[in-house]
Amino acid sequence: MASIAMDKPGATVLLMGNEAVARGAIEAGIGVAAAYPGSPTSEVLPTIATVAREMNIHAEWSVNEKVAAEVAGAASFAGIRSLCIMKQNGANVAADFIVNANMTGIGEAGMVIFISDDPGGMTSNNEEDSRTITKWFDNPLLEASNAQEAKEMVTWAYEVSEAVNLIVFVRGVTRLSYTRGNVVLGELPQARDKKARFPDLWDMDNPKKSKFTSGPFPVFHQPLHEKLEKAREIFEASTFNRYVGPEHPEVLIITCGACTSYSIEAVEELKVADRVGVLKLATTWPLPEKLVGKHLATTTKVFFVEEMDPFVERSVMELAASLLPATCNLTFYGKRSGHLTPYNEQSTNLVITALMDILGITYQPRDLTYDRAAKETATLVPSRPINLCAGCPHRATFWAIKRALTVDGRDGLVTGDIGCYSLAFAAPGFFQSRTMHAMGSGAGVANGLGSLKQFGFDQPVLAVTGDSTFYHAVMPALVNGIYNNANFILLILDNSATAMTGFQPHPGTGQLATGDPAPVVDMEAVCRAMGAPVEVCDPFDLEHTTETLLRMMKQDTGARVIILRHMCQLVKAKRKIPATYKMHVDPERCLGDTCGCDRLCTRIFGCPGLMWDTKTAKTAIDEALCVGCGLCHDICPAGAIIREEAI
Predict the structure, then answer these.
(1) Domain final position from 359, 381, 413
(2) Maximum Cα–Cα distance for the chain, whole Å?
(3) Would you tell me how many other CB atoms lie within 10 Å of the CB of residue 645?
(4) Claim to verify: residue 335 and residue 424 sit in the same structural domain
(5) Residue 205 — very low, low, confident or very high, per pLDDT cuts 50/70/90?
(6) How far apart, in Å, are the Cα atoms of 451 and each of 108, 442, 454?
(7) Are residues 193 and 304 in the same domain?
(8) Does 102 lie in the same domain as 60?
(9) What are phi and psi of 117, to 5 degrees?
(10) 322-339, pLDDT tens digit by residue?
(11) What is the DSSP letter of 189?
């Protein structure tokens, strides 16, 4: 589409779920959008940023999710509708602000958090279910089932937020965020000259507690629960909750989100629409108890279909327990019964398999010949192991780390972090990373290990982090290390972008979310100002990088910093920066399996730009993938990989 701000109410456009969320927020008249990039939500903020000027919206990549929530919260305090975007892990970071904002309430303008979970951990290091967090926080929660509903639901969420004076969560999952669907556009707000004013100024003649300050008083918890009950009343009448099926179904499916489509498709595929009803819940917390209770009274079997934890399942079973003895004949199926798992993605086939068991029926979608052919065809698909991109500077970094730790000989170790370089736990990073938890945890764990000298700990500790992660969560850990004289080296892998999630800018890139220029927050200057000694290396200069690592490890005192700076090859491609070298293999020098290096280049180093030619039994350059970084020339012990200056 030409623009996410297309002013054509009633027009049907094809949108990704994330784009639909952005459109819904724009139709709601937001003035502020703040986020930290994280798949599967990374496209929402950039979509809004493309029209930020014309729609009078402040759109920013914040340094982390807590700050993003605070920025959005401040807008609400000042009367401006706001959107905060994060993936499931971000809720952990933002929790401290959100739980306190719930105690105080927000401003007159609504605030919505769009959070998308990642069942199966396709772009995450976990598959945390954020719904449990919203229940803990006491925030109203909505779940969209498709792109159209995502747009409409986000717009409606602002009305709910303003009605109950709470932040409202709209939850998606990977399939919702990245699946495209037809979306009918609504009207855009006509008034764009939003006026912000913080209403609760301190009056010296009439001092009072600010309504935006929680304080230590427990009285704030009671109004919060009263607000939740008001949200429940609103949810009881929500048209986003729908039922399809017979008046008295043999089996009642209760589902939500992306699983709605799986459930409906399974019922249609099995041709049991006369036996099975589907209750689709969009308002999953607080649960619309009257609506759910009415449907529980129509059946004896309830089957829960939802992504991840048995969140709705538990809530409904709690409700059923309170409705005894009327619900004593109910049998529940779902995660607790083992019919579905509380991990990985759900699918139509999984729902079909469960329904077959519950209904006692058989089903054969295709003949056995087709199934055999499908399995045989699957064997023809080449394996695609995880890897770093061709010419990735992180491969050079971890090669240098491996060399330096080997030469040092004191069993040094790497504490890892979240980013492309997380692959250091596996073959692409030569199995160097020993820990990987939350963003910034590499430096935090290194603090702890580097403080164990009194217990005889003498292993060198190298904490790796990315440039974006440095601004997100590492600076406090570095301050802590300097203050407590923890013995570790912080390696900042600066590849000039938030590469893992789509090359979003950050405070070190000199660019805002809207593309406008921004001042560069110099990480080297920041580290020096904190009091840490700093060295800067190009990881493609393997000798200098290895020597610097060895020298820094020998210092064996306090927190030190090495910035390993080389632009991501994909960023270079986007900026049309030409290759440095043209690579080829000298067939006379490459002796293949008889070289004595045990195929170091293709078996160990593993750059996708290198391949093993089975016809010649020698290494070759894959010209389609090679980016001409020249690093493989430095690692070949026979000097068989030749680099020449690119013309």
Answers:
(1) 359
(2) 91
(3) 9
(4) no
(5) low
(6) 48, 14, 8
(7) no
(8) yes
(9) -90, 165
(10) 998 988 899 999 999 999
(11) P
CATH number of 28's domain? 3.40.50.970
pLDDT range class, residue 218, cuts 50, 70, 90:
very low
Amino acid letter, residue 468: S
**CATH number of the domain encompassing residue 617:** 3.30.70.20
Question: Do 355 and 415 lie in a common domain?
Answer: no
pLDDT of residue 569: 87
**How buried is 95 (Cβ within 10 angstroms: 0-12 exposed, 13-18 middle, 19+ buried)?**
middle
Number of domains in the chain: 4
**pLDDT tens digits, one per residue of 85-140:** 999 988 999 999 999 888 888 888 999 999 999 888 777 878 888 999 999 999 99
Using one digit for the tens of pLDDT, what is the confidence trace for 49-69?
999 999 999 999 999 999 999
Same domain, 534 and 633: no
Query: Where a domain ends, among 312, 334, 359?
Result: 359
How far is Cα 524 from Cα 532, in angstroms, rounded to an integer? 10
Do both 557 and 603 map to the same domain?
Answer: no
d(CA 417, CA 434): 10
Domain contains 101: yes
Q: Using an 8 Å Cβ cutoff, are 336 and 313 in contact?
A: yes
Distance, CA of 415 to chain centre: 21
The pTM of this model reads 0.86
Mark whether 285 and 433 lie in a shared domain. no
pLDDT at 366: 75
Residue 379 lies in a domain: no
Structure tokens at 308: 């991840």
| Residue 1: inside a domain | no
Same domain, yes or no: 190 and 323 = no
Task: Tell me, yes or no, whether 388 lies in a domain.
Answer: no
pLDDT mean over 364-392: 82
- Which tokens hold the place of 269? 């595929």
Phi, psi angles (nearest 5°) of residue 635: -100, -10
Backbone angles phi, psi at 180, to 5 degrees: -95, 150
pLDDT > 90? residue 435: no
Domain that holds residue 570: 393-574
Between CA 519 and CA 517 the distance in angstroms is 7
Supply the pLDDT for residue 292.
Answer: 96
Contact 427, 130 (CB under 8 A): no
- Strand pairing report for 180-184 and 276-280: unpaired
